[in-house]
Specification:
357 residues; alpha/beta; Isopropylmalate Dehydrogenase; 2 domains; 10-stranded mixed β-sheet; 12 strands
Length: 357
């Protein structure tokens, strides 16, 4: 693999260039999602990335969502197996349907595991440096089960669903991930002291799965304490696994530790599909059209997508370009267009300095 020094051509040969064109489903989503996808397409064009996007606009707030549109997205996903996606914003108003299209998409594809790698980026000034932890979230049940009803006027019941099968599945995913990535510890995050049955089952399932991985250290921590510990001493954590709602909260908290929602990539997996997105999901609607949205998270997510497609050279090229631009510290937000221009220049340098095997 080739790493390019700023302004210099690398002397090593890069990995072989892929001959095939890979098709990827693209869902821009709401808010700044379309702008971030434009950034991805611009960078892919500059880097001559062998990917063709099948683009679908699915939006509840823009009245561009329907079961028919969702079916088209699912059909594309079944063919391509891989997608890159912005945040599909969910209106707060209840209009007769509890499950949002974001949730429907996750369930239809069984995207049970959300992975957010929280990694410090040199160039961003934060309280904690050299952070490297992974948050794994079960995202097909829990509080996000769309099971709410008014039992009597003025009384709403919201059901939290925790099952043994899905708890064991996400726990196994976390331990498999730790094993594959050479990580040493998995921490289960819960509130079993209060929700003794639901979170108790999740905690029991994690403990049972942990017995199958004796080389991986296993701990558990209550969610509220976890939040405090992440702020005070995040270095104690390695891989964290948790139910749905806690994962949503911790994803956002941890993103704040390394620079905010605009810098942390994320991905969601089923047994068959992979969807790449931002780690902290925000539409950032107030920034639409102002050219101030930070594209870092989506660009790094697109690099992770290329790695998933075994396009290692192209993945490294984009990741390296993004990180070098940030490390140079010459771009300060709000200057989104300048960031993209610098990344394009970096990619042009990479291409002009390299020859494919």
């Amino acid at each position: 693999q080739m790493l390019l020094s700023p302004g210099l051509c690398g002397s090593e040969s890069p990995l072989a260039r892929a001959d095939a064109i890979f098709k990827v489903t693209m869902i821009p989503g709401d808010g700044v999602g379309p702008e971030l996808m434009t950034a991805v397409k611009d960078v892919f064009k500059a880097g001559d990335i062998p990917v063709e996007f099948e683009e679908f606009h699915l939006s509840e707030v823009q009245h561009m969502a329907s079961e028919d549109k969702l079916d088209h997205v699912l059909s594309s996903m079944k063919n391509n197996k891989v997608a890159i996606k912005g945040k599909i914003h969910t209106p707060m108003e209840y209009k007769g349907e509890l499950a949002s299209y974001e949730m429907k998409l996750r369930r239809k594809l069984d995207l049970f595991a959300n992975v957010v790698h929280v990694n410090s980026l040199p160039g961003y000034s934060t309280r904690h440096n050299n952070l490297d932890l992974v948050i794994i979230r079960e995202q097909t049940e829990g509080e996000y089960s769309s099971l709410e009803h008014e039992s009597v006027p003025g009384v709403i019941e919201c059901l939290k669903i925790i099952t043994r099968d899905k708890s064991r599945r996400i726990a196994k995913f976390a331990f498999d991930y730790a094993t594959k990535k050479g990580r040493s510890k998995v921490t289960a995050v819960h509130k079993a002291n209060i929700m003794k049955l639901a979170d108790g089952l999740f905690l029991q399932s994690c403990a049972e799965v942990a017995q199958l991985y004796p080389k991986i250290k296993y701990e558990n921590i209550i969610i509220d304490n976890c939040c405090m510990q992440l702020v005070q001493n995040p270095y104690q954590f390695d891989v964290l696994v948790m139910p749905n709602l806690y994962g949503n909260i911790i994803d956002n908290l941890a993103a704040g530790l390394v620079g905010g929602a605009g810098v942390v990539p994320g991905e969601s997996y089923s047994a068959e599909y992979a969807v790449f997105e931002t780690g902290a999901r925000h539409p950032f609607a107030q920034a639409v059209g102002r050219n101030i949205a930070n594209p870092t998270a989506m660009l790094l997510s697109s690099a992770n997508m290329l790695k998933h497609l075994n396009l290692e050279y192209h993945s490294q090229m984009i990741s390296d370009a993004v990180k070098r631009v940030i490390k140079q510290g010459k771009v300060l937000l709000p200057q989104h267009a300048t960031i993209i221009a610098r990344i394009r220049n970096r990619l042009s340098l990479s291409l002009s300095c390299s020859s494919y095997k």
